[in-house]
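pls read this protein:
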Amino acid sequence: PVKYGKCDPKKGQVVMIMGQSRCFGGAAAPQDRLEPCGDSGGIPKAVIAAFVVPVALVLCCLGCYVALLRRRYSQYMALEEDQDADKDTGGDLRSSGSVPASNIGAPTWA
């Protein structure tokens, strides 16, 4: 079926059946018919929603997971400014007030 011409909202759009070869053997060619205007045969909205909604939920969950991890491990993350401050003090950790991660939980009186 081939749609041609402008679509009239009241009448519809003319649809013509075109075969690859001419009709033969006494069969008459199909008549043109009017079909209502509307869907162009694209992807249904339900299929799009069935794909987009789960993807959006997964991305939302991943974002929440990243936020949770950043919050949970923020105490172990060091900014470059903090590392530069350690270099400025000559590497003396007592004056900067920070302790390397390898010394966490280790006795400090030794």
